[in-house]
Amino acid sequence: GRLMGSLMQSAEGDDSWAGVPALQTQEATLRAPPGCAVARARAVLSSDVDDPEDLQLALAELEREGAEDRDATRRDGVEDADAAARDSLGQELRVRLAALREEAAALLDGLLLRTSSNSGVEKASAGVDEEAPPQAEP
Known about the structure:
With 138 residues, the protein is mainly α. The protein has helices spanning 4-8, 26-31, 37-45, 52-76, 83-125.
């Protein structure tokens, strides 16, 4: 299931991101001007399919923009109003990436188990006893 709904909805059921521009298409995401990491992350998170590369790129951009804004905050003394939005989106991106990693690991484990069980079947059908030591000639 997607966690985005729980992160994006407030207690009253209102969209907590109301008023923040969201990009709807991959093409629009690619053409978005610099400084739109939040909009790009929202576009990636609203996609029907979680693409690990898109998720990773959106997270890297959010982190880069966040670091730039933190540096500017230290210089100017002006608090960054978008920090909470970036942090929330970054957390959701990390959750999705972790879920994809777990899914990939489970798929690989399944493939490895099937491969090792098929290997045992092939050896048994060939008449090879895996546990018997080789016989020395007299």
